[in-house]
Amino acid sequence: MGETSTRQRLAAILAADVSGFSRLMAKDETGTVNALDAAREVFGRHIAAMSGRVIDMAGDSVLAVFETAAGAVNAALAVQQEIGERCADQSEDCRMHFRIGVHLGDVIEKSDGTVYGDGVNTAARIESVAEPGGVSVSETVESVLRHRIAAVFEDQGQHALKNLPKPVQVFRVRASAAVAKPVATAAAAPVERVSKPAIAVLPFDNMSGDAEQEFFADGITEDIITELSRFKDLFVISRNSSFKYKGQPVQVQKFARELGVQYVVEGSVRKAGKRVRITVQLIDAETDRHVWAERYDRDLEDIFAIQDEVTSSIVAILPGRVEAASRDRASRKTTDNMAAYECVLTGKRLHHQSNRQDNERALALLDRAIALDPNYAHAHSWKACVLGQRWGYSWSDDRDALVPVIVGELEKALALDDNDSDVHRVLAAVQLIYGDFEKSQYHQQRALSLNPNDDLVVVQQGEILTWIGQPEEGVEWILKAMRLNPYHPERFWGHLGRAYFGSRHYAEALDALNRPASVDAARLALKAACHARLEQADLAQACVQQLRALRPPFVLAEHVAAMHYLHAADSEHYAESLALAGLQS
Fold first, then answer.
1. C-alpha 21 chain-centroid distance
2. pTM of the complete model
3. For a FRET experiment, which of 243, 291, 321, 391 has its CA 20 to 30 Å from that of 80?
4. Straight-line distance from the first to the last Cα atom of the chain, in angstroms, rounded to the nearest whole number
5. Element (H, E) at 427
6. At how many degrees (to 10) do helices 377-392 and 340-351 cross?
7. Across the strands, what pairs with 295?
8. What does the buried/exposed string (b/e) look like for 96-127 if buried means 16 or more CB atoms within 10 Å of the residue's CB?
C-alpha cells in the first residue's frame, strides 16, 4: 500500500481503559504510573499471543485489532484474569481495574497500521458500559462465539450509546471452562476436498426462546442452502449433512475438516415483539477468520416474505465474499500451484483491469485452467469474455480472426454446461456486442431463470433493458442488483447513470455517475451529455476537456457507434447530447 492508502475490512476490535484513573493518580501518582506500565505489558503479551495487534496505548487506554472475535475475547479474558491475580493482595481502593469492550465490525485501516471507523467507535462505547475488571461484547460478537469458546455470555440488554445511531445489545462475558464441549462428529474421517470452494451452512440458531420460531430458523437455513446451490462455482454441502449438527456446539475448524469445506456460514434468529433480528457470518474455516458479517432487522408482519428477502440478500452477497477470500488465497501462490478455479479467479481480476498487458496475462491463466480441466465450462466462457475484450479494444492485429475463436469457446461452454447461469450471462453480453438482441435476450432470460439472486445477472438485465429502449425498467433492475449486493462493483453506478440518462432523468444520472472514485472515458462522455441537457455548459465543457486529455483521439461518431442501442432514436438522443456538450464529429 502507498503512504496514504487505506483499506476497509472486517476486524475484531478490543478497547480498554482504566476505571477511576484520575482518582488513582490523585492518590498515588508514581504507583499508578508503574501499575499502568505493568498492565500494558500484560495487554501486549496476551494480544500478541492471540495474533492481535496493538494500535494504541495512549494514556490509560488500549486499542487493538484481531483477525477473529475469538482471539479478541480470549485475550480480554486472559488480561483481566492476570491483572486481577496481580493486584489481589492490594486494598480495593488501590487496585487498577480495566473495563474492556469487544466488537466485530468494519474498520478503515491506513497504511501506517492505524484504524478508524464505526467498528472502533462501537468497541469504545461498549467498553464504557463494561464492569470494572470485566469484559463486555456486542451482539455481533456473542452470536459469532456462542458455544465456540469457554465462556458464558450474559445479556445486559440494549444500551443507547453515545454517538451511535441505534441501541446496541451488550453481553457480559465470563470465563467458564465448563462451557466448551466437544463437537459431535458426523463423519469418521475428513472427506476429500473438491477443487472449487466448498461451503457448509450450519443450522441457524433460534434465539427467540419461542419454539414456534424454530421452523423460521430452519427455513432460512434451508433456503440459503438451496439458493447457494445455484452457483455452479460453489460446492455446497447438502441439508442432511449440515443438519446433523443442529443444536450442538460446533468447533468451526473441526466441523470444516469433517465435511471438507473451506467456508462456513452460521447465523441466528432472535424474535422480540413484532421485530425479528437475523445475524449471519461467513467464516474462512482454515484460519477461523470472519470474512463477512451482517445483521438484518425486520418488522414481523409477513414471516415468509422476510425469509425470502433475507435469503436473497445473503445469497447475493456470499458468493462474492467467497470469491474475494479465495482470490486473496490464490494471490499468495505461484501459478504452478493454482487449481483451475484459482486460475479463473485471477483471470477475472486481470480482465477487470482493462489493459492490454493484464488481458494477455488473463488469457494465459484461462488457457492453463482449461488445460487443467478441459471440461470446465466457466473457464471456456471467461476465455471468450477475455478474447471479446481484446476484440473490443482492438488489441489484436487481426480482429476478424478472433470472432470464430470467441464463438467456439462459447459453444464449448454451452455444450459442457447448459445449466450454468454464468455461461448464459456471458453469452448474453457477447451477443449484445454483436448486435444480436434476440439471442442476447434469450441467454439473459436463461441466466435469470437459473440464478435470480446473482447480482451480475440482475444488473445485466437492467443494462439490456436500457439498450433495447426500456430504461425505466432498466433502472429498477439495476437498483435491485445494488440492493442484492451492497458490495457491488463500481461499474454498477455507470449502468445506473446510463439507464437514468435514457429515461431523461439527467440529474439522477449525474448523481449515479459521480459516485465512483475512478474516471473513464465512457463515464466522462455521459456526464458531459447530462450536463448539456441540464444546460450546465461550464460543467459540460469541463467534462469534455477531461475526456480529451484522457483520450486525445476521441471521435464522436466512433464512440456513438460503439454503443449498443437497438433504436436509432436512442442513439440519436445520445449523439445530440454529446454535440450539445461541445463534442463534434
1. 40
2. 0.53
3. 291
4. 42
5. helix 421-434
6. 20
7. 279
8. bbbbbbbbbbbbebeeeeebebebbbbbbbbb
Each residue of 66-95: pLDDT tens digit? Answer: 988 888 999 999 999 999 888 877 877 788
Q: Which three cell numbers stand for residue 415?
A: 455444450
Asked whether the domain spanning 198-315 has the same topology as the one spanning 6-175, the reply is no
Please state, in angstroms and rounded to a whole number, the distance separating the CA atoms of residues 418 and 18: 63
By DSSP bridging, strand 235-236 and strand 275-284 are unpaired
E runs forming strands in 222-339: 235-236, 263-272, 275-284, 289-299
Per-residue cell: 455: 447480482
Residue that is written with C-alpha cell 489481589 in the block: 88
The C-alpha cell that represents 100 in the structure block = 474492556
Q: Where are the beta strands (DSSP E) in 273-381?
A: 275-284, 289-299
Which of 348, 559, 433 lies closest to 460 in space, CA to CA?
433
Confidence of residue 321 (pLDDT cuts 50, 70, 90): low
CA–CA dist 322, 261 (Å, integer): 12
What are the domain boundaries of the chain? Answer: 6-175, 198-315
Q: Given 3.30.70.1230, 3.40.50.10190, 3.40.50.1370, 3.30.499.10, which CATH number is that of 6-175? A: 3.30.70.1230
Q: What is the pLDDT of residues 165-217, one digit of tens each?
A: 788 889 999 886 433 333 333 333 333 344 567 888 888 888 877 766 777 78
Helix (H, G, I), strand (E, B) or coil at 554: coil
* 360: helix, strand or coil: helix
- In whole angstroms, give the CA distance from residue 379 to residue 372: 10
* Arch. (CATH architecture) of 198-315: 3-Layer(aba) Sandwich (3.40)
Q: Which three cell numbers stand for residue 73?
A: 475475547
